């Protein structure tokens, strides 16, 4: 069972991205949002005053509907779409004029085309009005549930209905100055830098799921830099919505696996697919290393993604004198949330298997690489 909680920022949040930063080298510190699993778990450990391990689901965004007086879970938009038209591998779309007419390297992911069976939405607006249409960058749970049931997203489900569905937050630059003593001059070294603060729109919050319940709630919890805090509360509404998505996803996976049918995997949190190679170098890529392309006898046909998400965390260890050390860990590059994977047959992640080493399963426990399985609609 997963217990769900909402985090309501009490002010702006300062969540630095993974780019190397020091005031005397790069005077602008970027931000990352939603916060990654490392940040959430670190905040929970500080709240409880322990080093307890957590099995995290999310984090996701959620919105409180003032009319329905209900919290709605929101997931990142699937990236395999152009507007409201889905993309599919050329080899799958027999109705496309490019099917069997376009040569490509079969040892690489198959090119994607707009689905021939999906007609563009009919509109009588002029070109200027069309350009003003805003598409949701985060879709509500009920739209995602319909996506899992039908394999497609209705045109009307893409249009922004509530503030923030295109981007639920704004950014605010915050400058920091160090003044020389007894002067009004900024120090020449490490004297000036700018951070980017995140401010969520009204009614927008962060939702997380944990396998273990938290006591003494509601409570405030420090999240991110400079002591900014969030209010953490229980939220059973998100639990019900997530269970519906999980049940439908599991049904799609088992049904497609049993019938050897094509399937699409929808990545709803950043995917960490890292592997150490013979030269002792860790490499990350946009899809799981255990998934092979058809040219190599595998099921993965193609995928739709965007630029990677840089994740920076810290490692803790004890030396021979049992002294604790906390040092920066190497950066990891994750596949963006919303990535779609097209497979000839569904295939489970190695990270989810009992035989996987603990250092691999740790990424899943931190909420990364969460997949929902879709039926193929053509």
Walk me through what this model shows.
The protein is α+β, with helices and mostly antiparallel strands and 378 residues long. The protein has one domain. Helices cover 15% and strands 30% of the residues. It has helices at residues 37-48, 127-131, 141-150, 236-258, 358-365, and strands at 3-9, 28-29, 56-65, 70-76, 81-82, 85-89, 112-114, 138-140, 169-177, 192-200, 204-210, 219-222, 229-234, 263-267, 274-276, 282-284, 300-304, 309-311, 314-318, 324-328, 332-334, 340-343, 371-375. α3 packs parallel to α4. The longest helix is centred in the middle third of the chain and has 23 residues, at 236-258. The chain is globular, with a radius of gyration of 23 Å.
List keywords for this structure.
378 residues; alpha+beta; seven-stranded antiparallel sheet; four-stranded antiparallel sheet; globular
Q: What would you call the structural class?
A: alpha+beta
Mean pLDDT, as a whole number?
A: 87
How much β-strand is present in the residues?
25-35%
Stretches where pLDDT is under 50 for at least 5 consecutive residues are: none
Number of domains: 1
Number of strands: 23
Helix count, per DSSP?
5
Major sheet, described briefly? 7 strands, antiparallel
């Amino acid at each position: 069972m997963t217990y769900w909680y909402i985090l309501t920022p009490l002010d702006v949040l300062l969540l630095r991205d993974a780019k190397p930063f020091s005031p005397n080298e790069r005077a602008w510190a970027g931000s990352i949002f939603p916060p990654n699993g490392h940040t959430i778990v670190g905040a929970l450990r500080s709240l409880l005053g322990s080093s307890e391990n957590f099995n995290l689901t999310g984090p996701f965004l959620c919105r409180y509907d003032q009319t329905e007086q209900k919290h709605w879970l929101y997931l990142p938009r699937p990236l395999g779409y152009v507007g409201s038209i889905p993309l599919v591998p050329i080899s799958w779309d027999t109705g496309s004029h490019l099917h069997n007419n376009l040569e490509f390297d079969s040892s690489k992911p198959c090119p994607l085309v707009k689905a021939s069976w999906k007609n563009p939405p009919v509109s009588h607006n002029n070109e200027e009005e069309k350009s003003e249409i805003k598409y949701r960058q985060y879709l509500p749970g009920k739209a995602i549930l319909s996506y899992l049931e039908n394999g497609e997203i209705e045109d009307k489900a893409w249009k922004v209905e509530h503030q923030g569905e295109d981007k639920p937050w704004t950014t605010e630059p915050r400058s920091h100055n160090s003044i020389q003593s007894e002067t009004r001059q900024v120090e020449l070294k490490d004297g000036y830098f700018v951070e980017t603060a995140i401010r969520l729109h009204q009614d927008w919050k962060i939702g997380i799921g944990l396998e273990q319940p938290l006591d003494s709630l509601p409570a405030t919890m420090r999240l991110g830099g400079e002591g900014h805090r969030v209010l953490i509360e229980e939220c059973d509404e998100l639990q019900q919505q997530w269970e519906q998505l999980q049940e439908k996803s599991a049904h799609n996976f088992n049904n497609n696996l049993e019938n050897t049918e094509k399937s699409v995997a929808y990545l709803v949190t950043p995917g960490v697919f890292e592997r150490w190679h013979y030269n002792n170098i860790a490499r990350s890529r946009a899809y799981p290393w255990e998934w092979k392309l058809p040219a190599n006898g595998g099921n993965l046909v193609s995928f739709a993604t965007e630029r990677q998400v840089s994740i920076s965390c810290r490692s803790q260890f004890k030396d021979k004198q049992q002294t604790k050390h906390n040092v920066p860990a190497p950066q990891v590059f994750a596949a963006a949330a919303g990535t779609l994977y097209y497979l000839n047959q569904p295939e489970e992640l190695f990270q989810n298997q009992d035989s996987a080493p603990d250092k691999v399963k740790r990424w899943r426990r931190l909420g990364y690489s969460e997949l929902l399985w879709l039926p193929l609609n053509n």
